[in-house]
Every structure is written in structure tokens, then in C-alpha cells.
Write a structure and sequence with these properties.
The protein has 295 residues and is of the alpha+beta class. It has helices at 2-9, 14-22, 25-29, 48-53, 56-71, 108-112, 166-170, 186-196, 201-211, 223-226, 234-259, 267-287; strands at 79-87, 97-103, 121-126, 144-151, 155-160, 177-184.
Amino acid sequence: MEKNAVEKKEVPGRRLIDLVLSWSIEDVRNENLYKNQVRQIPLKFSSTTEYMNSFTYPLIEETHADLLSSMSTLHLAPRCEISSFKQTKNFKPPKDFFYRVTLKSESRLQKNGGYEPMVGDIIALTNVRPKYKDLDRPNRPFLVAFVQKVKDDKIITILASKPILAEEQENKKRETLYAICLINMTTNIRIWRALNSQLEGKNLDIIGEVLQPKSAQYHLDGEAANECDNPLTFVEIVQKRFKCISKRLTFIMENLYTHLPTSFISLEVVKKMIKALDLLKSLETLLFAVSVTDK
């Protein structure tokens, strides 16, 4: 039991991924699949848990909508040919259908219009360039997978929604199999982890303060009052002001890239925001490293 728990932790956002992989083709086609579970987000929250939970189903619904939207242009979606595949050491039914997939090398001309899988992609495995109805046929049921790892652009590790037929693995003359890109879940997984975690320390404290601003009480005979009796140096004033601004800016930026839908903020912008926050933390470290002598 503990071993399974450890393996699941190796795939960030596993619960969301499992949910997406569990959807049948009928579920994907159903525009109202989560209609009764998505509620209006309130303006006030009684707890941090309530705040986090209020965004869970909207995120699931958005992920479902992205997948449904990709189906309308399925015949135009990029694809690549699969050369071979085999089970990994983590393969363990009924859910851990991990495969190591080798992609067929393509010519430069083919590569320009081909598909290079990325970590976080949801792909469909099929033997044709399908239209909507071709993804679920009697001899080949709906089969999708999550790209967990990519190595040298030719070898990928995937988590499949169901086992790939054994005869396809062993028969050297098996029919051609393709991986077709549907959506990328990187941003959705990042948001999911933020909502279900895993926020710790300062990040969680900031949200708590914003949701319950009256929790910080100041007493005349307490520490806050005593601060007035101890005048600050110039460096201490700068440090205190910087920390205040940095805290607010971090909170605002993290909420923007966590809760804004992917249609409003691209993955590239999110990466730049995260890099900016890292630089801000580095600057804070340098600023607070000023010694007493420097003051």
C-alpha cells in the first residue's frame, strides 16, 4: 500500500490525470458533464480550505472543455508514428499502465509538420488520423495517455488510460500506431497542485491573512506597541518596506498564474512570472544579508 502511494507521488497532479484518463469518449463529448458541480465562486470564504475547494470543479470543467474543444480539430492535430513500446517496471494494474514508447525517426521535411511530444501532453493512441468517431471503434476502444517523461525527443514514458493490446507489443508486423496530440495539462496540473496541497509556510500564511484580515490584532501593551519605542535605522526601514511590498506582489502574481484560465495567460507568461518571483526572492536574500556593521 505504501509502495503504491510513493509511486503515485512521482507523477505530479496524479489525481487530476487519473480523472482525465477515466473519461470515456461519451464523457468527453458531454458538454454538461460537470454542469451541476460547478458553482459560483463566493466573494467571502470562511476558511482556506473552502477557498481552495471552490476552484477545484471549475478547474476540472475547464480541463474537460479544453479536451472537448480539441476534438473539433482532431483531423488536423499533429501526430507522430510509434516505433515500439513496452511496459515499464512501474506497470501495475488496475491503474498504473506505464509504457516506455520509442518514436519513429522522421525526416527533416516530416519533422517540420510533425509532432514532438512534451511532458504534460494528453495524447490519443490510434492507427489512423482520426475524426471524432474514429477514436472509439469496436476493434480499438478509446485510448488516451499522459506523457510523463521525454528523453532525446524519441523516447517517452506514458501513463495510459488502459492496457495497450498485448498482440500489438509482440507482433513485429503489427499495424502502424500513432500518437496524436490533444491538449497539454502542464498549467492545469500546476493549479491543481496549488489547490490540493500543498501550499505550505509563507504562501499559506498569506492566503490566510487575506481571507481573515482581522485576525492580526494589535495591543497597546503588546509587541506592536513596543516597536514604536525602538526607532528603526534606514536599512531596517528599507528592509521592512521591501518585505511588505514583496509579500503582496508574490501573493498577487501567484494568484494570477494559478487561477486565471489558460485562455487568458499563456504558459510562456507563467514561466516569466515564476522567474520574476525567483529574482525577487534572490534580491530579498541579498538585502537581508546586510550585516550590522554595514548598517
